[in-house]
Amino acid sequence: MDRGRVGRPSVVWMKPPVRNRSSGKALKGKMGCDMNKLATKKMFGFTLIELMIVVGLVAILLAIAYPSYIKYVRKSNRSEAQQLLMNWSINQEIWRSNNPLYAGTGDLAAPTSDHYDFAPSNLSATTYTLTASAKTGDDQNNDTSRDNATSCASLTLNQSGVKAPAACWE
Fold first, then answer.
1. For the chain, domain boundaries
2. Under CATH, which number does the domain 48-169 receive?
């Protein structure tokens, strides 16, 4: 036994070294230690700090994205109501070409929607006004135009094609 190595056996058995795939040389660390000892230690799972960081990042992303998503859904529902009003207007014109007055709800059914109630008003031989109003208690009552100054909870369309409020029909 070598006197410089007190307490250590002179021969130590080690498993074969990990080899670099491209050169075939054994991997050694900075101090010449065998990288095999480091490679055999495997860690599983995440630390609590890592999980908390991920939860925090997801919360920040949701705080930024959720309001935009809600605005997008409201605008989509408003677009559906506008399309239904336009189709109803076309049906009113077809009805009027064959009858002396524009159609009431008894003659021509009003459209249906999950977020809006539809009603005709000002019906005569020459005029009509079609209205789509957001249903009571629906989030669509909070819908506003692009400038956030005009409420889009109620949309109207008349026989002349006048759309109100104009800011909501852009």
1. 48-169
2. 3.30.700.10
Whether this model's pTM surpasses 0.70: no
The 10 Å CB-count burial string (b at 16+, else e) for 72-97 is eebbebbebbbebbeebbeebeebbe
Which among 125, 118, 132, 122 has a CA at the least distance from the CA of 95? 125
**pLDDT tens digit string along 46-99?**
889 999 999 999 999 999 999 999 999 999 999 999 999 999 999 999 999 999
CA–CA separation, 165 and 170 (whole Å): 10
Residue pair 133/154 in contact by the 8 Å Cβ criterion: yes
Contact 134, 143 (CB under 8 A): yes
d(CA 109, CA 116) in angstroms, rounded, equals 15
